[in-house]
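Task 17 of the worksheet. Students: predict the tertiary structure of the chain below and write it out as structure tokens. Keep your answer in the requested format; marks are given for formatting as well as content.
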Amino acid sequence: MDDSKTLAYFRQHLLPAGQLSGLEAPVVDGHLALPVEVVWDGDRARSATFEVYRKGKPLEQVSRAVYRTLLVDPAFANLERLDLDAVACKDVPAVHLLGDPTPLLVREGLPRSVRRLGLAHPAMVTNAGDVGYEPVASLVPLHQLLASIEHLQIASCAKLGTLELPRLEKLELTADVTVKNLRELARANLPALQTLELACILYVEPEMRFNAVRALLRSKGMPALRALELAELDLDEDQWMELDEEGNDPEPWTPMLARSPLLRQLKRLTLAFRDIAREADALIEHAAAFEHLEALTLQWGEPIVRPTADAIAAAVA
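Model answer:
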């Protein structure tokens, strides 16, 4: 990451204080390079994107020293957003240096002013330039630190634990959602949660998520939820064909969604299936269950503001 104002700030405050003493500070094209990118509002930092390096890597101590500055320096006293391990450089060697950000937070803490937190552990870069993720090991040691967070975004997490976050308004799992995650969310106590976005993208381990999604849709721990996104949590083509060959006749997800108690409290619903054709007939048949919604979005298309059977049929045609 390279930002002239950020570099100037850390040259002035970090290096003279000796916080990098004895460490090999990274230099790119003759300039000090830092594992942080900052959005400034005058002399105050509003948001920061931070890279956390794998334990034992030479840059780990540098990033730790820089992170400690974020915790104590007045310029970061009003920091509102912090993204850890959001990838700035999609270079394969650079991504392989990155580590799980949760141990840093456990060890050093979280700036008190932060209300939006992003956690990711990039692990690979595809030939197309897409980033693949390893799961963050566990959110459990962070539960107390997360008490004041209002927006939490996680790429992938092996263990969410029992979430009781009174101020959380928006939660996103953006790269992988496991059966375990879904069951943990079904037991969560998130009284302020208004938006829940769950998505499975590249190289997700195949899992049968149907029953776990059904448990989530019966949850009573999200009374304020008004917007839900479920993106590609259903069966992939290989799973579908395997079940079909075994005579199990895989059922569509739409009837489960239509009968869901959680659906009745929603205003906005986004659904993206791995194959919309498998759900099309059921979506039309159960259109009445979605008519109360202000917007129904299918397969990342335009929102259907009046989701009648005819409108849904046109969207899935």
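Marker's comment: The first strand starts at residue 27 and ends at 28. The radius of gyration is 22 Å.
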